[in-house]
Amino acid sequence: MIYLTGDTHIPIDISKLNTKNFPEQKNLTRNDCVIILGDFGLYWHEDKTYQYWRQWLQKKSFTILWIDGNHENHDWIDSMPISTWHGGKVHRDGNIIHLMRGQVFDINGKKFFVMGGADSYDCAYRTPHVSWWPQERPSITDICQAEKTLRVVDGKVDYVLTHTCPLEMLDVIKHRHPDYDLNGRHDTEEILQYIRNQISFEQWFFGHWHENFTYKNYRCLYGDIVCLNYLYDF
Q: Domains of the chain, with CATH numbers?
């Protein structure tokens, strides 16, 4: 089975994956996985918090797949060894696997396109390379990688996994939250819109906005954990 959920901001929102809040895990194995849609937060600083939660996750019976958000230590992530998994590039730490940007992963015949990253609206109050990293936004290299990968599959995928959403979804979010100030830069959303205009997909999952809602074939996740009902083999 494959499950998806939103930001975990370890340790702030990781409790959604304990056995009380996610009892389905009692029947899962390493051939099952949970995908975290950015702002994972494990690889932040190599301290006791990291050591505790890394051990906690590695004891889980299932595999953790995650895409990067804006609140990640991208210097650390970029330094990790790269390997290949299900047709795409990853950073692998035991059963904790980072799905890299611009990749397409083939899982049981279903194609998942991944593009992590987002813009931090509070970066002016953060310290570069300590609590904020400029790599949070997809780069030209990431975009070129995405275009190259998507050409191989003729722009057709089953699922898109991102941290934030394409630009067209901001009107929906603004309608849901009139108090949000969305007048700033939306570079990452514009990048995702550029990609969205070139592909076809069944469903698009994203996090970042700290709520749960569905609009057409888009689904925003935060606390909810949803299941894609098919089996696959790692």
A: 2-228 (3.60.21)
